[in-house]
Design goal:
The complex is a heterotrimer. Chain A is mainly alpha-helical. Chain A has two domains: 17-42 and 62-82 and 232-283; 89-213, MetI-like (MetI-like fold, Orthogonal Bundle), CATH 1.10.3720. Chain A has helices at residues 3-11, 13-19, 22-44, 75-81, 84-110, 114-126, 131-142, 146-173, 176-183, 188-227, 234-240, 250-282. Chain A starts with a helix and ends with a helix. Classes of the chains: A mainly alpha, B mainly alpha, C alpha/beta.
């Protein structure tokens, strides 16, 4: 078989595997739906999210399709308005966290020696503390403004990403082609750019997917605990309407469903991509 | 002394020392994250409208005018001698504040652990053999893993605590005059939530470990020599993954301890999780530091025990004489 | 007839490529049948099929396998408990990895007991002791109480063989059972297989890629290529008149023949190693080694795994910094680490790695990988370096479009040529080839060796050729140095060392090397 024919067979493979996986489509639809809802939401809201539209805890009716909440505000409007900041923060936290983690991981992997070992030890020590605790520590000292929140969530994940990318970098530096590149006199910068980065890229992608999910979960939990940003977000909605579950479950159930759909959808997407990558390399 | 004991004693001592070093490192990190970063801590905590008097008082309480390393030593020695400091928010000694709460949280966590460990191992074993059990378990595991902990709790409340079926109380405000142990109905939902949170990780990890072991050469040979699936699972794969499984058990404790925050908030349960949230909101870094270090210490001890079990059950460290 | 394979076809899934294609085989009691084949011949799949086992993702397309009256694969195949009853008892298996049969948590006595228990038979300690002594191991209780990790690789493999024969099976399948073992043990295992087949009356299927070994152990040879049987016959018959072109190629690749081109100027020394001692942490690998290489000469450094030959190659190339002693290039001392050597020195000595799958960056085109050497070591700009790369790739027998390809699209042999091109692009004086043919199939090895001979002659290179195979050394090298346990055992002109080895060990290496004649 000519080289060209061989090559084109492999390059279509990932998409080929992905396309036929129902998980990919289910996940993509769920995520897309929620993202659309969050972005377009504020314009589609029938009422002002902070306005009083009726008595407390009213069941769904003509004016309020999902009923009212603990302060008599329209649940649907609040649902539509509560997603934007959440999405932006999650994306930002994951991106910064992964960037920092990748930098750290590669640096530690390429430079050996005592400093690297010490930093790894510190990183491992940080991982002993449960993630939510790490974030709360930072919030205790610095407050819970939206930017602080995002940075705290990002920082709490750096150690984990660094560990994963450090391991991936280690797999590259022990390969013969890396030794060959060092032997011709390539400097550390070139080594990282030309030998390490292209080969750890798949691991970085996978890690980014994982960090996205974890960041969103963390932010949702934090807003539930009362450290949310903005006047309206889904986590806080769930918390403030929890007392009225028996009267008006929709004030809690609606944001729970939207959150669950988003997070489960992301998980399905990630799963499908991981399967496709594995199937391609198994050939 | 047999060679097994000789080899392991050296490894055991090294592992214990590493654990101590980690505890010190973690304490430094906790301290630095809350108290030692550049900037005026006192002003950050008290906010823009603090008076000069309040600022001076806080600085004195926290010893912020001393060099950082002295502050750290003062704090660390205090912890070791039992002086946990004074809460900034309430003014009462932290030890008193936390005593009952620690017992409450401990009750829930321990009971959840006792249920989760055997259940998780069994489900992992069941899922390791491919089949309908695996598919069902995997789906459930994946679902729970994607969701935030508080959502799991809320779902339970909606289902059992007043939404659909009103079997159980939707919140758990324990009576502080009685032991938590004596108020079982209030404990059921929080414990159930904790179990549901920690179970998926344990099941997934156990299943993966067992599957990998089942793919080893020696298991394949045993299969080709006529041994049956069940025997291969329990008599061959399982004994060789005890070490890694005990480490996974350690990670399970990590998830349980992390889960106290969300679970106690959902059920208004008076434990260290809800106290931590309140302390963070009030910027009470003294309380926050103590709870953080306490949890970290418990986890480090747990990981130490798990690693020691790993050393002792590793067949490659055994000697025949 | 103890076993029969009829029209066996096994493929990937229901419509993927065939791994085994219409195979026919019959086994008789007490004989050893050798299955010869290279990677991709389907020999391992055949071996497992004899136990009624299909690898993951494989499906039976046609045909049947039966042994000792039990249908193992095919329309009437036994399942469940019947199949389990046959495996281990009627048909047994010895895996490639010596530790592959032994569960790490079971003492040897427990391993035997488990087997007996699974088949509900009594296994007396006497029978166990008898088997262990037959394979050359102690039969006493103390030995039987050992754990697998307390045994050497050779001992582990012998226990696996004892386990295989312990329930008196009719068929024993041995899949590459001598992999990773030293030459003495290899010959021992081969003789053991033959003895046990005769005395226990079992049919032994001995799968291997090592033709000389098969010639020693088998009464009948089956040559497999791409899933089919291309030829069968006794070793002597095949050696004298092999009919199928593939068989002829295979035999040719294993035959002693050829000799190196005359050295251009053997008097001047390009490389000199004095008192080289090297280690890895606490472990000492090389002890006070002395070697020398003349200009235009090829020196073969021969030894088995653990002899220190790779460490020697790496130390010379500056890739193993933990060493003491002196390495001199044209009389000038070289720094231990390649990073500390100057550009001219780095250029002068080039290293070619053993493993073709790890030596090229999988995310960079082959031509670019070759050009990098020229860029860094000869100061060429990008376009000049790329032009040189294409030219060098042609010199090693590849085409221009290979330069644009990614390593995954090249075969093992092609990758190794590319690795060679990368080294040559620097314009070196000394080429250090570390087991560069060991990971390749025998038929491809011959091509690479021919290429090396040609390149050396054309460019007047000096070469250090590391190998475990004395016959390759005979083809290529003017002088040979034999290493054992990190020490130089003997050295001299190749012809002399091969014809009159001074040590028993060297003599064994000569015997194990190739088919005579």
């Amino acid at each position: 078989m000519s080289l060209h024919a061989q090559h084109s067979k492999t390059s279509t493979s990932v998409w080929h595997f992905l396309r036929s996986d129902p998980r990919l489509w289910a996940g993509a639809v769920a995520v897309a739906a929620v993202v659309l809802l969050a972005i377009a939401g504020p314009w589609l809201a029938p009422h002002d999210p902070s306005a009083f539209v009726g008595r407390l805890y009213l069941r769904p009716n003509a004016t309020s399709w999902l009923g009212t909440d603990v302060l008599g505000r329209d649940v649907l409007s609040r649902l539509l308005a509560g997603g934007r900041l959440f999405l932006i923060q999650g994306l930002a936290a994951a991106t910064f966290g992964v960037l920092a983690g990748v930098l750290l991981g590669i640096l530690l992997g390429v430079t050996k020696g005592r400093t690297a070992a010490f930093l790894l030890f510190c990183s491992d020590s940080v991982m002993v503390i449960p993630q939510i605790l790490l974030v709360l520590l930072i919030l205790a000292a610095f407050g819970s403004a939206p930017l602080t929140l995002t940075i705290a969530v990002a920082l709490a994940q750096v150690a984990y990403t660094a560990r994963v990318i450090f391991a991936a970098t280690g797999r590259v530096t022990t390969e013969d082609y890396y030794r060959a590149a060092r032997a011709v006199g390539m400097g550390t910068g070139s080594l990282v750019l030309r030998e390490v980065l292209p080969n750890v890229a798949p691991a970085v992608l996978v890690e980014y997917g994982v960090r996205l999910s974890i960041s969103f979960v963390a932010l949702a939990s934090l807003s539930y605990l009362g450290f949310g940003s903005g006047d309206v977000d889904w986590g806080a909605m769930i918390h403030e309407n929890q007392g009225g579950i028996a009267l008006q479950p929709w004030a809690v159930v609606a944001p729970v469903l939207v959150l669950a759909a988003f997070l489960l959808g992301m998980n399905l997407l990630r799963d499908a991509v991981a399967r496709a990558l594995a199937a391609r390399s198994a050939r | 002394m047999s060679r097994t004991t000789q080899v392991s004693t050296r490894l055991i001592i090294r592992r214990v020392l590493t654990g101590v070093a980690m505890l010190v490192t973690v304490s430094v990190l906790v301290f630095v994250a809350t108290q030692a970063l550049p900037g005026d801590i006192a002003r950050t905590i008290l906010g823009q409208n603090a008076t000069a008097e309040q600022l001076t008082q806080l600085r004195g309480e926290l010893g912020l005018d001393l060099p950082v390393w002295q502050q750290y030593l003062h704090w660390a020695t205090g912890l070791l001698t039992g002086d946990l400091g004074t809460s900034l928010a309430s003014g009462s000694p932290v030890a008193e504040l936390l005593r009952v709460r620690v017992l409450n949280s401990l009750t829930v966590v321990l009971i959840a652990l006792v249920i989760t460990l055997p259940l998780g191992l069994l489900l992992g074993l069941a899922a390791a053999r491919r089949g309908p059990a695996d598919v069902g378990i995997s789906a459930a595991v994946q679902t729970i893993l994607s969701l935030p902990e508080f959502v799991v709790g809320i779902v339970l409340v909606v289902l059992f605590g007043g939404g659909l079926f009103r079997w159980l109380p939707p919140t758990s405000p324990l009576d502080p005059r009685q032991l938590a142990w004596n108020q079982p109905r209030l404990l059921i939902l929080p414990i159930a939530t904790m179990v549901l949170i920690a179970l998926p990780h344990l099941v997934e990890a156990t299943k993966t470990l067992l599957r990998e072991e089942l793919a080893s050469d020696y298991v394949r040979w045993a299969r080709l020599s006529g041994l049956g699936d069940v025997r291969l699972l329990t008599g061959y794969a399982l004994p060789n993954v005890l070490g890694p499984i005990s480490q996974v058990a350690g990670v399970t404790v990590n998830y349980l301890l992390g889960g106290v925050v969300a679970v106690e908030t959902v059920f208004a349960f008076p434990g260290i999780g809800s106290e931590l949230v309140a302390a963070v909101a009030a910027r009470d870094i003294v309380v926050v530091q103590v709870i953080a270090i306490g949890i970290a210490a418990v986890l480090l001890v747990t990981f130490l025990i798990a690693d020691l079990i790993g050393l002792l059950t590793n067949p490659r460290l055994r000697r025949s004489r | 007839m103890t076993a029969q394979v009829a029209e066996l076809s096994i493929g990937v899934g229901s419509d993927g490529p065939l791994i085994v294609d219409g195979l026919e085989l019959e086994l008789a009691a007490g004989e050893v049948v050798g299955i010869a084949g290279e990677t991709g011949s389907g020999k391992t799949t055949l071996g497992l099929a004899l136990l009624g086992h299909l690898g993951p993702g494989l499906q039976l397309r046609r045909g049947r396998v039966s042994a000792a009256g039990v249908e193992l694969l095919g329309p009437a195949a036994a399942t469940g408990s019947q199949l389990r009853a046959a495996r281990g008892r009627t048909i047994a298996y010895v895996p490639q990895d010596p530790a592959g049969a032994l569960a790490p948590h079971l003492r040897l006595e427990a391993a035997f007991a488990e087997l007996a228990r699974a088949h509900r038979v009594e296994l007396s300690p006497d029978r166990r002791a008898e088997l262990l002594t037959r394979v050359g191991l102690p039969g006493d209780d103390a030995f039987a109480r050992r754990y697998p990790h307390e045994l050497s690789g050779g001992q582990q493999q012998r226990v696996a063989i004892a386990l295989a024969f312990c329930l008196t099976p009719s068929v024993v399948v041995m899949d590459e059972p001598t992999t990773g073992l030293d030459v003495t043990t290899k010959l021992l295992i081969a003789d053991l297989a033959r003895e046990l087949a005769a005395s226990e009356g079992a049919s032994v299927v001995f799968i291997s890629h090592d033709l000389p070994l098969l010639f020693r152990v088998a009464q009948r040879l089956v040559v497999m290529h791409e899933g089919r049987v291309v030829e069968t016959g006794t070793p002597t018959a095949l050696l004298e008149h092999a009919e199928h072109p593939y068989t002829q190629r295979l035999l040719a690749a294993w035959r002693l023949g050829g000799s190196p081109a005359p050295a251009s100027d053997g008097t001047r020394q390009v490389l000199s190693v004095r008192g080289l001692s090297a280690g890895y942490g606490d472990v000492q690998i090389l002890h006070d080694l002395d070697l020398s290489l003349g200009v235009g000469e090829c020196l073969a450094v021969v030894g088995e795994s653990g002899s220190g030959k790779t460490t020697t190659a790496r130390a010379i190339s500056g890739l193993h910094a933990e060493h003491s002693g002196r390495i001199l290039l044209y009389g000038e001392p070289l720094a231990a680490e390649v990073a500390k050597r100057d550009r001219a020195q780095r250029r002068a000595i080039q290293y070619v790695f053993q493993n073709p799958w790890g030596s090229l960056n999988p995310r960079r085109r082959v031509g670019a990988s070759v050009a990098i050497t020229a860029q860094y070591l000869r100061g060429l700009n990008r376009s000049d370096a790329e032009a040189l790369a294409v030219q060098t790739l042609r010199d090693v027998g590849l085409r221009a479009d290979h330069a644009q390809a990614m390593p995954q699209h090249l075969s093992g042999g092609q990758r190794q040529r590319a690795a060679l091109a990368r080294a040559l692009a620097a314009g070196p004086e000394v080429l250090v080839c570390d087991e560069v043919t060991s990971s390749l199939d025998a038929s491809v090895q011959a091509d690479i060796v021919a290429l090396l001979k040609q390149i050396q002659a054309e460019r007047g290179l000096s070469m250090v050729f590391i190998t475990h195979d004395l016959a390759l050394a005979g083809e290529l090298a003017h002088r040979v140095a034999v290493l054992k346990d990190g020490r130089l055992l003997e050295t001299g002109p190749t012809r002399d060392v091969l014809a009159h080895p001074q040590h028993d060990y060297t003599a064994e290496l000569v015997r194990a090397a190739r088919l005579a004649g």
